[in-house]
Specification:
The longest helix is centred in the middle third of the chain and has 22 residues, at 103-124. It is globular and about 45 Å long. It is built from 9 helices and 7 strands, in the order βαβαβαβαβαβαααβα. The protein has helices at 16-26, 39-51, 66-80, 103-124, 151-171, 190-195, 199-207, 217-227, 251-259, and strands at residues 7-11, 31-36, 56-60, 85-88, 134-138, 177-183, 239-242. The protein has one domain (7-259): NAD(P)-binding Rossmann-like Domain (Rossmann fold, 3-Layer(aba) Sandwich), CATH 3.40.50.720. By secondary structure, the chain is of the alpha/beta class. The chain has a 7-stranded parallel sheet with strand order 3-2-1-4-5-6-7, sandwiched between helices. The structure holds NADP nicotinamide-adenine-dinucleotide phosphate and coenzyme A (COA). Residues 91-94, 96, 101-102, 104-105, 108, 190-191, 194 line the site of coenzyme A (COA). Coenzyme A binds at residues 91-94, 96, 101-102, 104-105, 108, 190-191, 194.
């Protein structure tokens, strides 16, 4: 498995899980592009990836702005050639009861997580290596598990999973595979700082994972790299949980509580 000189574009790649994925490709010799809204965060991520010894560049753009995405993809191809791997993981989340969520708050998360996921894939399509490119969208357990105070994220990520599946059907004939990874709770991420802000809530989350720990960004990165490799060349249209068994539901936590 080698991504030496392959072009890897990571939307939302300046922090957290997505930067962890970028690092794993970078250490395998890939040329990595990161994109997010904030120029300083883009510059810091590019410097970090270059510091690992590889080639990296970045673009400040919002996944809600289609033309900006399209321009970034085109500039990537001009510099380095067609995109071999597209990781799409830009997202926004906050914890709020549905009764207190404004229409614009709901729309904001739909626009970033669902419309943004489509925008990234659609803008990339003309610039992907065909055949051979691989897309990995970053989903979440909320896409299948109704989760209180997460009505916006549940709706957006469920929709994004269907975008993954339909694109896999339509773009498979072009030689483009489209899959998703659904991470469980991952340590040291903004997502979990928002969902588990206290030691007590962090403990409760841990107890709901059959492996009884949070995952690491590297564990997600390694699976993403494998999913884009020749070793996974017949996998198309899956949403793969990488979550220590979290998606299996509440039975594990209940069993633990019964014997606690
Ligand atoms: P994070 O560090 O906040 O990553 C989000 C990234 O997206 C940042 O680079 C952010 O940079 C960028 N971004 C946000 N809004 C954007 C927009 N409108 N346009 C372009 N870029 C945007 O969060 P994370 O917790 O690692 O989450 C990363 C992904 O994993 C998300 O898709 C999330 O749903 C998924 N996930 C996370 C967990 C977890 O345990 N953390 C579990 C399951 C799934 P800027 O602020 O500079 O734009
Ligand atoms: N609770 C309730 N509503 C909230 C909220 C919160 N914590 N945060 C934002 N909103 C609402 C705002 O009130 C606004 O709605 P309104 O116009 O009806 O008042 C709407 O959401 C948009 O807010 P705004 O701050 O303008 O959005 P933004 O586009 O600047 O930022 C967010 C997007 C809100 C998702 C922001 O949290 C973000 O940038 N997140 C990225 C990092 C992240 O979430 N990481 C974890 C990934 S899983």
């Amino acid at each position: 498995m080698s991504f030496q000189n392959k072009v890897v574009f990571v939307a939302g790649g300046t922090s957290g899980i997505n930067l962890g994925i970028a690092e794993v490709f970078a250490e395998d010799g890939a040329r990595v592009v990161v994109l997010s809204r904030n120029q300083e965060r883009v510059d810091a991520a590019v410097a970090h990836l270059r510091g690992m010894g590889g080639e990296a560049m970045g673009f400040a753009a919002d996944v809600r702005q289609y033309q900006a995405l399209s321009d970034a993809m085109a500039a990537t191809v001009t510099a380095w050639g067609p995109i071999d791997v597209l990781i799409s993981g830009a997202a926004g989340n906050f914890v709020v009861p549905a009764a207190e969520l404004s229409a614009n708050g709901f729309k904001t998360v739909i626009d970033i997580d669902l419309l943004g996921a489509f925008n990234v894939m659609r803008a990339a399509l003309p610039h992907l290596r065909k055949p051979g490119a691989s897309i990995v969208n970053i989903s979440a357990p909320q896409s299948t598990q109704p989760t209180p105070h997460q009505i916006h994220v549940c709706a957006a990520k469920a929709g994004a999973d269907q975008v993954t599946r339909v694109a896999a059907m339509e773009w498979g004939p072009m030689g483009v595979r489209v899959n998703a990874i659904s991470p469980g709770p991952i340590a040291d991420t903004e997502g979990m700082r928002r969902l588990a802000p206290t030691p007590a809530s962090e403990k409760a989350w841990t107890q709901s994972v059959p492996l009884r720990r949070f995952g690491t960004k590297r564990e997600i990165g390694l699976v993403a790299r494998w999913l884009c490799s020749e070793e996974a060349s017949y996998i198309n249209g899956v949403v793969l949980p990488v979550d220590g068994g979290f998606a299996l539901g509440g039975s594990s936590a209940q069993a633990h509580n019964m014997h606690a």
